[in-house]
Design goal:
single chain; 21 strands; about 25% helix; 2 domains; globular; Dipeptide-binding Protein, domain 3; alpha+beta
Length: about 575
């Protein structure tokens, strides 16, 4: 049964702690429990973040910068909360096998499947007042599963082989297999059928580049969250205003301005000058910068260090002839002193990574093979691979006289990442590897270099990971970006391993954690052995917030803190 006004259950889709956040709006007396503002300026919040997204479509190309904004204007069907537990966002009740809203069934061809029923809130609308209904769910599914649409997480959409629209607010998904993520839809961000269907049907292949989100991002009909995009200054800032049709808890702030400042030193200067109120922890200052900032300005700001599942790593292009040799890949990792990087650059606040699974994750194993700093072992592996030091040179070469030279791409403007790249470069040089650094703006790196696999050797960046991060998008053979799939994958290394493909399928199909753990171990053992990726560290995100701003709660995983923007408010005191 549903009441005429729903309570928004704010559980987050990729976390491990259970928190229920009431978002039912004000009570009958009209009191929200939050102090009233003294003037309109107090109802504006200006946030600084270090990257500008390459596009505004919520389901095409993942980036932290974009999801930070879209969490305020569009809501997924489910999310992971602060306790890393799966929960409803745009659904009334989370379907489970236990409550009967998910059931086991057979597919039409007799294979094991599932039927999962979701119920949308009845009073949910788009920002132009158009009701959000199951027609939008079906359209989003159609776009997501089209092989040339370029959407993220296409396997999620593909595995739903049929939809039953029970009524305007109830839909049953029929899955082609039994998978433990059956009720997890953090990447299922609804698209407005009334705006997008004509564009998509006109040319599904070109929809990636020609959609309303990019052509007219201030169209209110695109969004169903507590805020709408009001203005966009490309590469500079985006301004959000309250959504008058939002059905949930009324936000405290009338306006949120997100300013994109790619150089972290400039980001800090803008904070101190008052041009911005806070720096986003998800994509702002690095730990070393935040530690120095805390010493100088800790009395004026709250600095929250939140560790978790932000995985800093180096992807290797495996079809590069040098990197195709596993001995070279292992040598690259043995040559790195990651402990010193963590301690000297980040004050010990980061954690050395040995696989993509964070220590907080139930799939973490502490006894996997590790690659300690061992320059002698690195040198021996390079010698065995035919890369030797000749004629007093400090750079190795092969029998053909070709130098052992590899390019490393990473983001420009991020002072600490640039410094990290230089430290890695120096450590590799000690074993005879000549690494050339190529810094690119985030828009170029994430919009083209990675997405279209335009890097030649290595690229350093971070994944924001959910609990039990299924590696289909990043490790499965069919997710290698290519023109043939309209670059719709994130397997940037080009990794292809039959057993890993099988393990990914088996992991998805195994319903209990106890049965998944041996599969997770085997996957990580292959990951560590094949070294298609160089694990560096799990980053601790520093959130720099003013003393007066309350309600900001980092999750430690890939769900952005802005998913709870309606809980943020200004606290008044006698001193203000």
């Amino acid at each position: 049964m549903r009441s005429s006004r729903k309570c928004f259950l704010g559980f987050v889709v990729q976390g491990l702690l259970l928190v229920v956040l009431s978002a039912c709006g004000s009570d009958e007396s009209g009191s929200s429990g939050i102090p009233e503002q003294n003037n309109a300026a107090d109802r504006t919040l200006t946030i600084g973040i270090a990257q500008y997204p390459s596009n505004w479509h919520p389901n095409i190309e993942n980036s932290v910068a974009k999801s930070y904004v879209t969490a305020m204007v569009s809501r997924p069907i489910t999310h992971f909360n602060h306790d890393w537990q799966n929960a409803c966002t745009l659904c009334d009740i989370l379907p489970t096998l236990e409550n009967g809203m998910a059931v086991l069934e057979e597919t039409p061809d007799g294979k094991p499947g599932m039927a999962v029923t979701f119920s949308l809130p009845e009073d949910l609308t788009w920002g132009d007042g158009t009701p959000v209904d199951t027609g939008d769910v079906k359209f989003t599914w159609e776009v997501g599963r089209h092989p040339m649409s370029g959407t993220n997480a296409r396997e999620t959409y593909r595995s739903i082989y049929a939809l039953d629209l029970i009524d305007d607010h109830t839909v049953t998904f029929h899955l082609d297999r039994r998978v433990f993520t059956y009720n997890q839809l953090p990447v299922f961000l609804l698209l407005p059928e009334h705006l997008e269907r004509p564009i998509f049907e006109a040319d599904p292949v070109e929809y990636r580049k020609r959609n309303t989100f990019d052509a007219d991002p201030t169209n209110p009909g695109l969004f169903n969250g507590p805020f709408l995009i009001d203005t966009v200054e490309r590469g500079s800032q985006v301004t959000l205003k309250r959504n008058p049709h939002w059905y949930g808890k009324e936000p405290y702030f009338d306006t949120v301005v997100v300013r994109f400042i790619e150089r972290t030193t400039t980001l800090e200067a803008n904070l101190l000058s008052g041009e911005i109120d806070m720096i986003a922890g998800e994509l702002g200052l690095q730990v070393d910068q935040a530690l120095a900032f805390e010493k100088r300005h800790g009395d004026d700001f709250n600095i929250i260090f939140k560790s978790g599942a932000l995985y800093e790593h180096v992807d290797l292009r495996l079809d590069n002839p040098i990197l195709a040799d596993k001995q070279v890949r292992k040598a690259l990792l043995y040559a790195l002193d990651r402990e010193s990087v963590v301690n000297e650059l980040f004050g010990g606040r980061q954690t050395v990574a040995h696989s993509p699974i964070a220590m907080q994750d139930p799939a973490y194993f502490a006894d996997l093979t590790r690659y300690p700093h061992d320059p002698q072992q690195a040198a021996a592996l390079l010698d065995a691979a035919g890369w030797t030091l000749k004629d007093g040179s400090d750079v190795r070469s092969n029998a053909a006289g070709e130098a052992l030279r590899i390019e490393l791409n990473t983001t420009a403007g991020d002072k600490t990442r640039e410094l990290t790249a230089q430290v890695l470069q120096a450590q590799w040089r000690t074993v005879g590897i000549d690494v050339r650094i190529r810094n690119e703006t985030p828009r170029v790196l994430f919009g083209q270099t990675l997405t279209e696999r335009k890097f030649d050797g290595m690229v350093m960046f971070a994944w924001s990971m959910p609990p039990e991060p299924l590696p289909r998008a990043t490790m499965h053979t069919d997710r290698i970006p290519a023109p043939e799939n309209n670059f719709a994958g994130q397997n940037y290394t080009g990794f292809s391993n039959t057993r890993v493909d099988e393990l990914i399928q088996e992991l998805e199909d195994t319903l209990t954690l106890e049965e998944r753990l041996p599969l997770w171990r085997e996957f990580q053992e292959i990951y560590v052995e094949e070294v298609a990726v160089l694990p560096l560290m799990f980053r601790a995100n520093p959130f720099i917030v003013p003393k007066w701003l309350k309600g900001v709660r980092p999750t430690g995983h890939y769900t952005q803190s802005t998913l709870w923007i309606e809980d943020w408010y200004r606290e008044y005191s006698a001193e203000l």
